[in-house]
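SAMPLE LOG
Freezer: B-3
Tube label: C17
Construct: single chain, 471 aa
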Amino acid sequence: MYKVYHRIDQIAGNVITLNAPGVSYRELAEVTSAEGTSLAQVIRLEGRRVSLQVFAGGRGIATDARVRFLGHPMRTSFSEALLGRIFNGSGLSRDNGPALEENMIDIGGPSVNPAKRIIPRNMIRTGIPMIDVFNTLVESQKIPVFSVAGEPYNQLLARIALQAEVDVIILGGMGLKYDDYLFFRDTLEEAGALSRAVMFIHTAADPTVECLLVPDMSLAVAEQFALNERRVLVLLTDMTNFCDSLKEIEITMEQIPSNRGYPGDLYSQLAARYEKAVDFDTAGSITILSVTTMPGDDVTHPIPDNTGYITEGQFYLRNGRIEPFGSLSRLKQLVNKRTREDHRTIMNTMIQLYAGYRETLEKQAMGFRMGAWDRKLLKYGELFERELMDLSVNIPLEHALDTCWRILAECFEPPETGIPTALVEKFWPRTRIEEPGPAEADRPPGEAQHAATGAEASEEEEDGPSDCGGR
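STRUCTURE (predicted):
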């Protein structure tokens, strides 16, 4: 039986407060007023005193509005019919498709029992060399993309959604501009990838509380797919908007703020979502790749700072490229030894030489004279940035490793790279010996020798008169 209350004690923005015993945290309620009926969610409990966040906002709600508690948290439907669909933060259809109400599951549940997890062991190929070669994405990993506003992080996520070798893609958008939402939708649809994707989209014009529900919706559905033996990749953008929504609600509730106004439980809120990443022993897996925009490009800001303690590395996106310095996949060593025998060596060598290239650029900018080694490094750095760092490059891992060897061969001699001889003999590109042309091949050996002698003689005759004239 539903509990119904007819008296609201306080209305502060989108948060209403009333006395209601026996209510649980994150329970849903319907608030009915003259403006209509709206969903609300319990966001704070203090004994009998209950605070609810109204999804549609508190405008038009009077103190005599009717509040009916539903006895369960936010739920979403789960079935194969979710694939190819787009929903908002409340789980309602955004693509004008039919409503899905069968097999409802609770969102925001606890993380998976650690005893059911296994050590990550599989690589997720993306076709992006700066990920596949240098900072490999590992199945069941949780890793953020640290960036700033204006960088093409949404384009990067869309490309990964198209190319990642997984079974299901779940995209959770928080605070997106409408253009960004349309970009994701159109990109996946035109490439034929929407059929294996589910999208939960919160735009900047939607209620704040829906922004908080998007990660929980995405991860609840991902968990069900993983239990059905699917490899699931969850893409979240932007977790900074999620944290700002937390901050907005905490301020509305007049709670004491922590660092830079963010709530004191920011770490716990982020960890509750990121720790959903898992590789089940007898089922599928959940991998989480999220975007975190850093205000002022400040990595010590509370959001990236707390995120770094939870996740297993990070990708830095700067100047439209994934930076090799600062980017780190802490789990890459678990899979790099199983890809190709030269993977780890070529990865370390390329980064070491690129560091030398960066130092050479500084020397060049300060006016130092460039030596032969510096010129080699300059040539190497240009090739590295153009053929590997550029986000438009789309090649498989093996092709990317071969490209690394080719770049090294174009710029250096084998001893200059420090690569072990055994790998050099196996992978270093061989110089092609040009075969004689058809006319030269058909010519008798005597004629060929005579022609060569004649050519040498003609060169001597040309030099002769000039020398005589100078005496």
